[in-house]
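INFO batch 0412 | record 1 of 1 | parsing
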Amino acid sequence: MQAGRELDKQIAEALGWEPYLDEDFTDWATNGHGWVPKFSTTGDGMLRLIEEARKQGILFDLDTMEDKYKVKAYRWNEFNLEYDEIANVEGESAPRIVCSAFLWGKGSER
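INFO prediction complete | emitting tokens
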């Protein structure tokens, strides 16, 4: 899925939020979380996703390369007492690939 409001809505749903179109049908809002952040297109939105994912036990490792970004997502494994890699994504947009890694880790994007 491309970066944009539909992807942001999908992220909000994966976080357990319940997004709905506002009264003018122009943007996504939620009860209790305000407007759906622009997770996939802005640095602020990406940082909000990183914080919200951390609350759900998903951690990110972001590497900056000369021509791309690499993101790995991890989740704690109680059985092995270590972090398991649950996603490994690379691309040109840091917010977009953090979203992709989150959805991959949640099992929403395969």
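INFO post-check: The chain has one domain: 5-106.
INFO record closed
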